[in-house]
Specification:
Layout: E1 4-5, H1 8-17, H2 25-28, E2 32-38, H3 45-66, E3 74-80, H4 85-95, H5 111-124, E4 128-129, E5 147-148, H6 154-168, E6 177-183, H7 186-189, H8 192-202, E7 205-211, H9 219-229, E8 233-237, H10 241-252, E9 260-262, H11 269-272, E10 283-286, H12 296-305, H13 319-342, H14 349-357, E11 360-361, H15 363-368, E12 378-379, E13 392-396, E14 401-403, H16 412-430
Helix pairs in contact: 3-13, 4-5, 6-8, 13-14
Length: 438
C-alpha cells in the first residue's frame, strides 16, 4: 500500500474521491517524500482543488503502475495553505523534515509563498519548483541555486502574448493600445517590467489596472477601459474569482472576447464557466496541453477503474489537473535523473537539486512517458533554471478549451539579459556570490 497523509482540512474532499491509503511507518523510511502545499479551502479553492487532485493522481499512478521511481515509492502529505503566505511558510516548516531524507521538493503554487520560501528552502537545500509562477529572475541558477522556474516564467509569458497580439494585428503593434488588468500582488506585478520594455520596442501604449484581492470590484476599472482607454488588446494576470468577474465586466462594456487574453492562471474552467456565454471566445495562455488525448490518461482511467484513483474523476483532463500532472512528471524525471548519479534510493533535496540542474526532457522521453501533447521539451542547467519551455494560446468555446496555436517560443535572448540583470541586483542586495556555472 502507499502513503497518502492528509491534513484535516483536506480529508473531507479526499474521502469523497477515494479511500484513504496508508503505509506502515517503517516502510515510510524507504520512500521519496513530497510535501504538498494545497488550497482546497478559501477563496481560491476552485483553482486549488484540481491542482491538488492532479498531484495526488499522478503520484499514485507512479506508485501503482510503475512501483515507484526505479523501485522507490513516493509518499506525500497535504497541508492546507488557503493561498496564504504565512500558512504556506508554516506548512513548509512542519513538513520539511518528514521522510527518510526530508522534503525532496516544494511546489508552493503561490508567487507570494514562493517569495517567502526562497531563502528558507535554499538554506535547507530543498528545491523550489515554481512552475510558471514565482520570481522570473530565479531562472538564473548562479544566484538562485535551489529555485527552478521551468518550463516558463511570467516574463516569458508576457513576451508570448505580445508576439501573438502582434501577429493578430498584422505584424505591427505600432500605435496600438494594450491594457494590463492584474491582481494587485507580487504575482500580478511580475509581467509589468517586461510589458513596459516591449512597449518601447514595439511601439504600443501600455496602461495598467490593478485589481484588489479577491477581485469582485471591477466595474469602475472596466468602465475606464471600455469608455476612455479603448485598448486594442487587454491582457489579464488574474486569479480566482477575479478572472470570471473580469470576463463578465468586459462583456458588459462590449470589449471583444477574442482580444481579451489571460495568463495561464486566468485560463482554467473555473475562470470561464461562471461567466456563462459571456466567456465565449475568451483566450488565454497555457503551458500544458488541454483535454485527455495524451496516452497517460488511459493509464489514469485504468487506475480509477481499478479503484486506486485518489482524485475527483471530474477533474481529470481539466486545465489545472493537467498542469499538476506535468509538474509531477517534471519532479519525478528530476529524481530519475539524480538516481542515475546517486543510486536508486530516497534522495536528499540537494541530490534532487542536482537532478533538476541536469534535467533533459526530450520529445522522445515525453512520448515514451505518455505525455505527448501535454508539454514541450525542456533542458535545464546550472545557469538556466527555466529550461526553454513555451506556451500556447487556447480559446474557450463555451464548453471546452481548444488550443488554437502550437507552442510559441519566447524571445530568449532579451529575456535572459533581463533575468541576469534582475538576479544580479538581488545578489547585490543579499550579498550573494554568484556560482561558477562554467
Amino acid at each position: 500500500m502507499n502513503l497518502r497523509k492528509l491534513t484535516a482540512a483536506a480529508v473531507g474532499a479526499a474521502v469523497l474521491a477515494a479511500p484513504l491509503l496508508a503505509t506502515p511507518v517503517a516502510a515510510q523510511d524507504e520512500t521519496q517524500f513530497v510535501p504538498l502545499l494545497v488550497y482546497r479551502t478559501g477563496p481560491y479553492a476552485p483553482n486549488g482543488i484540481p491542482l491538488a487532485d492532479g498531484f495526488n493522481d499522478y503520484f499514485q499512478l507512479v506508485n501503482t503502475r510503475d512501483g515507484g521511481i526505479n523501485g522507490v515509492q513516493l509518499s506525500w502529505e497535504e497541508c492546507e495553505t488557503q493561498y496564504n503566505n504565512d500558512r504556506g511558510v508554516e506548512c513548509y516548516e512542519r513538513l520539511k523534515n518528514n521522510g527518510a531524507t526530508g522534503a525532496s521538493v516544494v511546489n508552493p503554487y503561490s508567487t507570494g509563498i514562493t517569495y517567502a520560501l526562497i531563502e528558507r528552502a535554499t538554506a535547507d537545500e530543498v528545491p523550489v519548483l515554481s512552475m510558471g509562477y514565482g520570481r522570473a529572475d530565479a531562472s538564473d541558477g548562479r544566484v538562485f541555486p535551489y529555485v527552478f522556474t521551468a518550463p516558463i516564467t511570467y516574463w516569458a509569458g508576457a513576451d508570448v502574448l505580445v508576439q501573438y497580439a502582434k501577429e493578430q494585428a498584422g505584424g505591427s503593434l505600432e500605435g496600438k493600445k494594450i491594457s494590463l488588468v492584474y491582481h494587485d500582488s507580487a504575482y500580478g506585478k511580475e509581467p509589468i517590467a517586461t510589458l513596459e520594455r516591449l512597449a518601447g520596442e514595439e511601439g504600443y501604449e501600455l496602461s495598467l489596472f490593478p485589481v484588489a484581492h479577491p477581485g469582485l470590484e471591477q466595474k469602475a476599472t472596466w468602465l475606464q477601459i471600455g469608455r476612455q482607454v479603448r485598448p486594442d488588446y487587454v491582457f489579464m494576470w488574474g486569479w480566482g474569482v477575479m478572472n470570471s468577474t473580469a470576463i463578465k465586466e468586459a462583456a458588459a462594456v462590449g470589449f471583444p472576447m477574442d482580444r481579451f487574453l489571460g495568463v495561464w492562471w486566468s485560463g482554467a474552467e473555473a475562470d470561464v464557466e461562471p461567466a456563462g456565454g459571456q466567456a465565449n471566445g475568451y483566450k488565454s495562455l497555457n503551458i500544458t496541453g488541454v483535454g485527455t488525448n495524451a496516452p497517460i490518461f488511459a493509464d489514469i482511467k485504468a487506475m480509477h477503474d481499478a479503484g486506486n484513483g485518489v482524485a475527483d474523476p471530474g477533474n481529470v483532463g481539466t486545465v489545472l489537473y493537467n498542469r499538476a500532472v506535468v509538474n509531477g512528471f517534471m519532479f519525478t524525471e528530476a529524481v530519475r535523473t539524480a538516481q542515475a548519479n546517486f543510486g536508486n534510493r530516497p534522495l536528499t533535496g540537494a541530490e534532487v537539486q542536482w537532478g533538476f540542474e541536469n534535467l533533459d526532457i526530450t520529445q522522445a522521453r515525453i512520448d515514451e512517458a505518455g505525455m505527448t501533447g501535454l508539454m514541450s521539451p525542456m533542458k535545464l542547467s546550472c545557469l538556466d533554471h527555466e529550461g526553454g519551455g513555451s506556451a500556447l494560446i487556447q480559446q474557450w468555446d463555451g464548453k471546452q478549451w481548444n488550443a488554437i496555436t502550437d507552442f510559441i517560443e519566447p524571445n530568449r535572448d532579451s529575456l535572459r539579459a533581463a533575468y541576469e540583470a534582475s538576479a544580479a541586483k538581488y545578489a547585490g542586495e543579499k550579498d550573494i556570490t554568484l556560482r561558477d556555472c562554467s
